[in-house]
Amino acid sequence: MVLSEANCGDLLHSLTLEEWEPLLSLIPEIESTSSFGEWSRGSSGNEGAFQMPWCTPAPVVERFLKVIYGIPIVISFDWGSWDEGRRMVGDDDFDYDSVDLLTKCKLITAIVRNDRFCEGLLVSAFESGLMLKILRSLERSLRS
What we know:
It contains eight helices and six strands, in the order βαααββββαβαααα. By secondary structure, it is mainly alpha-helical. The chain has one domain (3-33, 57-143).
């Protein structure tokens, strides 16, 4: 399920800690995971056909996707034009505690949605620690 940007703020704030728990419970597993996906090489086939490389996400990434759509925290918005979000994730020192719950969910949404157009982006967000930073910040804000 995907939330409408117009009314998602109230819904996100109405979720109980118990409803967030499936997502928060992934944090220890993410912290202990060393590989978040496997890249397969593309190939040149017969008659000039070419197969692009592809990425197979690790099980924890697959569970993450099921959880965020199941809670739901994925928001329908124009993530491709969201320059503010692009600046946040592009800054290695950005303090995710400085943004609200809605913005954190929009960041998660933008990364997940962008992965559809740039295969491996979600796996890269896990490998770089970006997704873990966002999830830890989300957990701190929900438990405070």
